[in-house]
Design a protein that fits this description.
Elements (H helix, E strand, L loop, with lengths): L1 E6 L9 H7 L3 E6 L14 E4 L14 H14 L4 E4 L1 H9 L3 E4 L5 E9 L12 E8 L1 E5 L4 E6 L7 E4 L3 E4 L9 H5 L3 H11 L4 H35 L1
Parallel strand pairs: 1-2, 1-3, 3-4, 4-11
Antiparallel strand pairs: 5-8, 6-7, 6-9, 9-10, 10-11
Helix pairs in contact: 2-3
Pfam families: GATase (PF00117)
Protein name: Amidotransferase
Length: 239
């Protein structure tokens, strides 16, 4: 399959998903929207993967390309084509399909956390009910789109994952981490500010140590999750 990737900053990319995608014989075509790259004709692609970013879904004045991205997502998902959004990509899915996104009522969620499966989503097949994951966000999905179902949650942020039908998924947490992801993201001013708000000044080494201690588990979840998504997408594309 040809997988189209929407990126919103160069360092938020498919990460550890890339190895599994390549091993399955699929191709990635990454578009850097924040750098002015145009969205290509959607009919040329089979799957849409939308990554995170330091901006918010309502900041169309500062980031005019957001309007076109939301329209593309709406058209894609409405056509029943496979979609997976991570963090900002999940929020864009919710906004594009009629849900609501806003700032978290509590502090931003940064660092290692646990989320709990709700129901039995095919995306989580073979994974434990409680998932260890990594977070870095200050906004959240406040209201699910019409017809969406909640598939993951925790106490800090109710909508940690949701599905629209069996083809479109949004995950608030990050499953795509590599060994260098947290260090790279900490260089972004917006993320550095959130880190200090939640963990305090000088807390980056703590975050890096937590990720290092859990990286094998995190990447094991990532492999299973992206395999589940790709298997479902393959069936949908070939139907």
């Amino acid at each position: 399959m040809k997988i189209l990737v929407f990126q919103h900053v160069a360092i938020e990319h498919p990460g550890s998903f890339r190895d599994t995608i390549k091993a399955q014989g699929h191709s990635l075509h990454q578009i850097e929207l924040d750098e002015g790259e145009a969205i290509p004709p959607l009919h040329d692609y089979d799957v849409l993967l939308v990554m995170g970013g330091p901006m918010d879904v309502w900041e169309e004045e500062a980031h005019p390309w957001l309007a076109a991205e939301k329209a593309a997502i709406r058209a894609w998902v409405s056509a029943g084509k496979p979609y997976l959004g991570m963090c900002f990509g999940a929020q864009l899915l919710a906004e594009a399909m009629g849900g609501k996104v806003g700032l978290m009522k509590t502090a931003p969620e940064v660092g290692m956390s646990q989320v709990r499966q709700v129901g039995a989503a095919a995306l989580f097949s073979g994974l434990p009910e409680q998932l260890t994951c990594f977070q870095w966000h200050g906004a959240e999905v406040c209201e699910l789109p019409p017809g969406a179902s909640l598939i993951a949650t925790n106490a800090a942020c109710r909508v940690q994952g949701f599905a629209l039908g069996e083809h479109a998924y949004g995950l608030q947490f990050h499953a795509e981490l590599t060994e260098t992801t947290a260090q790279e993201w900490a260089a972004l001013p917006e993320y550095a500010a959130a880190l200090e708000t939640v963990k305090g000044p000088g807390s980056l080494p703590l975050i890096l140590a937590e990720v290092d201690a859990k990286i094998d588990d995190l990447q094991g979840v990532a492999r299973r999750l992206i395999l589940n998504f790709l298997q479902g997408a393959t069936l949908q594309v070939s139907a």
